[in-house]
Design goal:
Radius of gyration: 17 Å
Order of helices and strands: HHHEHEHEEEHEEHEEE
Distance between the termini: 27 Å
Number of helices: 7
Helix content: 25-40%
Structural class: alpha/beta
Amino acid sequence: MMKTFSQNYLNLLQGEFKGINLTRIDDPDEFYNKQIIDSVLPLEKSSIFLQEINKSGILVDVGFGGGFPIFPLAVKLPGIKFIGLDARSKKVEVVTAIGNMLEIKNSKLHHIRVEEVVFDLPVVITFKAVGKISDLLSSIKSSTRVLVCFYKGPNVHELENIKSALKSWDLKEEIQYEVPGTEGRSFLCFRNKNVLRGTIDSKLIKISELL
């Protein structure tokens, strides 16, 4: 199923959406490994990722770019609700159209920055290849416990100071796994130690309102 999904996806990216530059990969096998398999492999490799997704029933993907990992995950988990947040309106418009053509029914994409959102539900949040972990964790405002997971390269500790994030977050899991055609991947999941107290800023958008 995922092989067919991957080829249909790549056909769209190389066809009518070619000028949008959503991926530089044009080889079908490379696209399948680096975009599809890379997106879904943590469901199998992680000890808590799938468990937490099933518990909350909601996954929020921040900075989804060309639709990864949100669309491959949505295909694998049709009973889960997926919310995509991206700061680039054109990407949201185009990727929404691609999702409709691929008949992905369980995802909603929004042109919203994560800084404008408050997580009022115990969701799972993903970031794939965008920004530094400590910066992204500090951008999250939550009135409840959330699990935040990052798709990173194998040398994440050489490139980032993850210890600085541990003042407010617990590192619940860190795993490494192989993806064909890459040097390997790291997958790190964090849970917040603290939640927002008192009145929530009325300017913030509740994630529950985006379902």
